[in-house]
Automatic annotation (TrEMBL):
Residue intervals of the Transketolase N-terminal domain: 16-266
Membrane spanning residue stretches: none
Keywords for the protein's UniProt record, in alphabetical order: Metal-binding, Thiamine pyrophosphate, Transferase
InterPro entries (alphabetical): THDP-binding, Transketolase_CS, Transketolase_N
Required cofactor(s): thiamine diphosphate
Cleaved signal peptide residues: none
Organism: Fusibacter bizertensis
Protein known as: Transketolase
Keyword Transferase carried by entry: yes
Family of the protein in this entry: Belongs to the transketolase family.
Gene3D superfamilies linked to this entry: 3.40.50.970
Domain of life: Bacteria
Coiled-coil region list: none
């Protein structure tokens, strides 16, 4: 277990370096929410999900939906590092003609299972995928990453009750609970209250974890496998901008690219570990 965890922690550092590199090169993007998602995305792609980078449309593959699509640098980075496309494409983020636009496009990027943009839609699409997989007798699972600010959207809860009705135990929502959204702290904009209790009230099995403790993330993924007749919500408690001291828990880093000096400082910090 120790070697497994250490390897994943090292992969997460590589992921964070790639996230910052592509955003710095583009001069725009969303570092905060990408960095907060880096650990559980690493665990999914390197340890948990059944995927094959050489066959992105594998019928039996697990699906991943990044509902908070503005955090696409975390998805692009892991896909590049896993070999879904040439790594050098990370330097084309948000550039004219690039496959890597400001939101992921399933028609352009190998490995992207759903085009996302407007917040609140990903879980509904995940429900549809999960129902379809069950009707097709396909054992694949659907993972949906949601921002905590995003779950203020009503459509999330319509999808949540639908998932419970159909007992979609092949659907896993991961709530990136970093406490910050575009305009500030969620507690100031629209307090979320008891997030775990809300999901439970809608019929979901809830597992909380430290979204930056790799061992705890793996524990949560292991626990979800025992759930038989409910969709699962993994409430990942995270820090926006995790891994970079001056970005961590600072709302202004939601959608700002680091300049040359900030980028160099951030990469130096990551070289020393998290």
């Amino acid at each position: 277990m120790e070697n497994r965890v250490k390897n994943l922690e090292e992969k997460a550092i590589d992921l964070r370096k790639t996230i910052l590199t592509m955003i710095h090169e583009a001069g725009s993007g969303h570092p905060g929410g990408s960095l907060s998602a880096a650990d559980y995305v690493t665990a999914l792609y390197y340890d948990e999900m059944n995927i094959d980078p050489s066959n992105p449309k594998l019928r039996e593959r697990d699906r991943f939906i990044l509902s908070k699509g503005h955090a696409c640098p975390v998805l692009y980075s892991v896909l590049a590092l896993k070999g879904y496309f040439d790594y050098d494409k990370i330097y084309t983020l948000r550039k004219l003609g690039s496959i890597l636009q400001g939101h992921p496009d399933m028609n352009k990027v190998p490995g992207v299972d759903m085009t996302s943009g407007s917040l609140g839609q990903g879980l509904s699409c995940g429900v549809g995928m999960a129902i379809g997989l069950k009707y097709d007798n396909n054992a694949a699972r659907v993972f949906v990453a949601l921002g905590d600010g995003e779950i203020q959207e009503g459509q999330i809860w319509e999808a949540a009750e639908t998932a419970a009705k159909y007992k979609l135990n092949n659907l896993i929502a991961i709530v990136d609970n970093n406490g910050i959204q575009n305009d500030g702290f969620t507690k100031d904009i629209m307090p979320l209250g008891n997030i775990a209790g809300k999901w439970q009230a809608f019929g979901w099995f809830v597992i909380e974890c430290d979204g930056h403790d790799m061992k705890d993330i793996l524990r949560a993924f292991n626990e979800m496998k025992s759930v038989k007749e409910q969709p699962v919500c993994i409430l990942a408690n995270t820090v926006k901008g995790k891994g970079v001291s001056f970005m961590a828990n600072v709302p202004s880093w939601h959608g700002v690219a680091p300049n040359k000096e900030e980028f160099a400082k951030a990469i130096e910090e990551l070289k020393g570990g998290i």
